[in-house]
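ok trying this again, last paste got cut off
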Amino acid sequence: MKILCFSDSHGRVLSMYEAVQAEQPDVILHAGDSEDSFETLEELLQKEQPHIECRGVLGNCDRDQNLASRGLHQRTHTELLTVSDKRVLLLHSHQFPELRMRGDYSKALAFARERRADMLVFGHTHRQERLDLDGVVFVNPGATQWGDYAVIDISDSGEISVRLVQG
């Protein structure tokens, strides 16, 4: 299973569309601060590649809107989903200022562990990261507005590998 991860696209659709064409994912996750670019991409993919599942959360620059009227999943600030038997917690991380300010992952890790997450996909810092903390894989795809993204592959045996792509 191939998961393509974006965050902080800030209105830019083209870099995400190009990454989708290059990577051909099964699932796309957006960790917030889309400013409607992910929603635009999702609408485009519904027509071109409807088999790709798209999920996203709100970031601190996003406004809550009625996406159901556009045929899209409604966004919240966090979402817990299961992909290939792995529990993936998706959030923007502006809820954890200590992560951005001091690189302190303890509260985010506790939040993920309370939800029995195997992975935490987050954004907000605009810095690409891949960490393994107490059995939880942390992935920040970076700033998609600059062409950054991450690819998570989950093997049939459940092994998780992460590739960070810089724009």
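PB: full thing came through this time. Residues 2-165 form a domain with the Purple Acid Phosphatase; chain A, domain 2 fold (CATH 3.60.21.10).
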